[in-house]
Amino acid sequence: MVSNSRPTREDYYRALSDNLPEETLVVTSLGNASYLWATVRDAPENFYLEDAMGLALPLALGLAVAQPNREVVVVEGDGGLLMHMGGLVTVGAVAPNNLTILLIQNGVHAASGGQALTNAELDIADIARAMGLKHAENITSVKEFQSGLVPALKGDGPTLLALATEPDLDAVIPPAMLDPVVTKRRFMEAVGAPRYVSIFFGGGMLSE
């Protein structure tokens, strides 16, 4: 799985940032998926899903359904996706045309120390097509990535782009600590979600 000719995660992120419409919602998984994206393009429309391996895709799917007029991009790792493959099955069944999955395919569990995947040679793009995704392809260069990303961001999905890259095992230090509460609150404001107000004695409610 490892080749010195592969782009880095940052190469892909820079290209994503250059082509991303401002209103796009971006969900990133744990580790450098979130840390580096916060460094490259921090924004209220980003949801950094830390310490929940494999659950970035289900969250992004829910957002795509709830926010049909906005493009949703999710960055997930190959290890995380393999932990919760049912999420990809559901994407194929629901088929939201505004969802783009960027799969960081480095062949290892980078966030937990670089352990090799049990089967790093799986063609996940092929699996995604079999599950009913409209578009799925393997990407090995930034130029290919840009070519595949542009139509995906025009609502021609669901799309999965499997991005071949080198493992990045050293954690990136983001410009500011990622506070889950701050992330949630500013993201809710970005999507116009009402704030949930808890009540001590039973139930809760959504604020006006």
List keywords for this structure.
about 35% helix; Rossmann fold; about 210 residues
Order of helices and strands: HEHEHEHHEEEHEHEHEE
Mean pLDDT across residues? 86
Strand share of the residues? 15-25%
Radius of gyration: 17 Å
Given helix and strand content, the structural type is alpha/beta
What is the 3D shape? globular
For the report, how would you describe the main beta sheet?
6 strands, parallel
- What is the CATH superfamily classification? Thiamin diphosphate (ThDP)-binding fold, Pyr/PP domains
How many structural domains? 1
CATH architecture: 3-Layer(aba) Sandwich
Task: Please give a structural write-up.
The protein has helices at residues 9-19, 32-41, 56-66, 78-83, 86-94, 124-130, 142-152, 180-191; strands spanning 25-28, 46-48, 72-77, 99-105, 108-109, 115-116, 135-139, 159-164, 196-198, 204-206. With 208 residues, the chain is an alpha/beta fold. The protein has a single domain, classed as Rossmann fold (3-Layer(aba) Sandwich), CATH 3.40.50.970. Strands 2-1-3-4-8-7 form a six-stranded parallel β-sheet, sandwiched between helices. A two-stranded antiparallel sheet has the order 5-6. Strand 9 and strand 10 (204-206) form a beta hairpin. The chain is globular and about 55 Å long.
